[in-house]
Fold:
Amino acid sequence: MDADHDGSSGSGDSGSAHEGVRPHAVSRTSSEPDAPAPGPDSPAPGTEAPVPAPTPPGTGVGIAGLSFGYQLVAALSLSLIGLLACAQVAMVFLHVAPSNTLTKQHGKTVDDWIYPEFEQNWKLFAPNPLQQNIAVHVRAEVSGAEGRRTTGWISLTQEDGDAIRGSLFPSHVHQNELRRGWDFYVNSHDDRNKPNGLRGDLSERYIRRIAMLRLSERDLGGTVERIQMRSASSTISPPPWSTEKADTRPSYRELPWWPVTPDDLPAPRDAARAEEGTE
Structure:
């Protein structure tokens, strides 16, 4: 009985001794994240991470990947390209800028730079922008049953303007034909309406045909024998906030009377179609 009692008590003591050395579970709160499991390449706990070895020169990206000699050559090349680009921008600016002290002193140098082979005739700054409204008028001498009579002045420019206003797709003819034709005539004639070059006669015939093309769409009550054209130029009035004073009354430039020839008349549509068919 005693032996059994001692054995039972011994076993009980042994059990309590084992229970005393058992590891206890560490309680974690819900706010603490779980520690990640160490990977195969992770350093062991308590050891420092290895320091990466420095990159040897010549193994980088771009210019940094070049050797010192090539880096020097690349830097000098980029600097030279930058200086040439700045010089080009400066020369072009001086070329298109209005006349100033620099262009007066170094105009020959700028021209030699800008005009090495080909000419450039555009300007960024207009030294004298157009500040006028120019209208082209025409009148005709018509022979009919009652004899000859002269019509009043007809504004061809106003007709083109009326055709353009309110149109989503205005015609290029209404926008440019008359204006460019008149500029062609003015630039090829002097103030006395004398041609100043070989294109004078061509510009005169061109502007006459434009006028007769417009008059052919009107019923003037007879046959047009002669026509006369003029321009009415009026200065655009300054804005209300400006103190500038300008005379807005129109000034006129009248051309001589021109006899109408068969070449000035527009070809009939049937004749034009027949001519196109023969070609």
User: Anything to note?
Assistant: The chain has a mean pLDDT of 78. The first strand starts at residue 132 and ends at 144. The chain has seven helices and six strands. Residues 62 and 71 are 10 Å apart (CA to CA).
